[in-house]
Design a protein that fits this description.
alpha+beta; 4-stranded mixed β-sheet; single chain; 18 helices; 3 domains; globular; 434 Repressor (Amino-terminal Domain)
């Protein structure tokens, strides 16, 4: 007899989208999965489309190769798909579709975590709204005005932003860090339902670059939420330049930054860095955007930056700690006051490895492990 690769009888509960998420998280193609479990590429595609369901033996192989528990493939999707945007990526030139896969999956799981947490506690209201489609490409003045509108909505004046991550969290965004060590991808973002989600890199990233990356993703969420994936692919360079301009305007508002960034000198910009917490390279670009520096001055500053070895690592890059998200940890601390088993409850609600849950929520893995031991000892 030949083994059956699809379940022929009724089986309820298998969530086809979870298979796609698990595959993308591992940076695997449909063919990669097909070869590993011994079925055709078309069969795997049908599993992901929900047209057929894998047999028990095939499901067992999927569990093993994708490193997900069986329960993961039966985990209902409760997050809202209404109003979801295309995923935006900040990536290197060599990034492939496979490299983008983990960002898509972890953004989705971040939304799943937020959905569960919001059942238990009220999270901050959203203060930022996406722009409706205007004439594209945007002119510089429109981008500057959009950045200032967001700053006003977030209650900011014209000075530096003390903590970009906590500011965004306080105003309703969900921010997480992930280690993009195996792919040339620095960050990703997406509107999922009514909230914006931002995933930024954790490894080999300075605090100044991290803050700029957050502002860059915020620019995509505000300026480009209306864009379809095909349009983003065709105009990727334009979209990136616009998000870059937005990030500079958001972090370094023209009114105040023009008054301080008035000398085309690396030492002067170095002195401004602890106050504004942006890279010297970003300040040079901002000076160019605002026409504070001439093209010759910008060229000379970049040559000096290269000569001092600051393109690889600027002053304070290795000394300043990254900004850490606090939304999940603060929420769990509040819940734990009345519900000592809240970490166990969260663990049981989310069929993801503890390392994934901890990584996305910035919670210590030991918080889950210790409570699991306490729970077992009580029975």
């Amino acid at each position: 007899m030949t083994p059956r690769n699809e379940w022929q009888g009724p089986r309820t509960g298998f969530v086809s989208e979870r298979l796609r998420e698990a595959r993308l998280a591992k940076r695997l193609s449909l063919q990669d999965v097909a070869d590993a479990v011994g079925v055709s590429r078309q069969a795997v595609s049908q599993y992901e489309l929900g047209l057929t369901v894998p047999s028990d033996s095939i499901l067992g192989q999927l569990v093993h190769m994708l490193d997900r528990p069986v329960a993961f493939f039966f985990w209902p999707i409760n997050r809202s798909a209404e109003g979801s945007s295309t995923v935006f990526f900040r990536k290197g030139a060599g990034a492939t579709l496979k490299d983008q896969g983990p960002v898509r999956s972890y953004l989705a799981w971040l939304a799943d975590l937020e959905y569960i947490l919001e059942r238990w506690i009220t999270l901050p209201e959203l203060s930022v709204a996406p722009s409706s489609e205007g004439e594209h490409p945007y002119d510089p003045l429109t981008i500057e005005q959009a950045a200032q509108k967001v700053r006003k909505a977030l209650g900011l004046g014209d000075g530096p932003i003390a903590h970009v991550t906590r500011l965004l969290e306080f105003h309703g965004a969900i921010v997480a860090q992930w280690s993009f060590t195996t792919a040339p991808v620095d960050a990703g973002s997406q509107w999922i339902g009514r909230r914006p989600y931002i995933l930024v890199g954790r490894e080999a990233v300075s605090m100044a670059r991290q803050r700029f990356g957050l502002a860059h993703e915020l620019g995509h969420l505000v300026l480009h939420s209306w864009a379809e994936e095909d349009m983003i692919k065709r105009h990727y360079s334009e979209f990136e330049k616009e998000a870059h301009r937005f990030a500079g305007a958001f972090l370094m508002p023209a009114k105040s930054f023009t008054q301080e960034c008035c000398i085309p000198s690396l030492d002067h910009l170095k002195g401004l860095k602890p106050r504004w917490k942006v890279s010297i390279s970003a300040m040079i670009q901002r000076g160019k955007d605002l026409q504070i520096f001439t093209d010759d001055e910008v060229r000379r500053l970049h040559q000096q930056l290269q000569g001092r070895g600051w393109r690889r690592a600027e002053p304070w890059d290795t000394e300043w700690e990254l900004e850490a998200p606090v939304l999940f940890s603060q929420a769990m601390s509040l819940l734990e006051q009345d519900q000592p088993d809240i970490y166990l409850r969260l663990r049981n609600e989310i069929p993801l490895p503890v390392t994934d849950i901890a990584g996305l929520t910035h919670l210590e893995p030991s918080r889950f492990e210790s409570r699991l031991r306490i729970s077992r000892s009580d029975h």
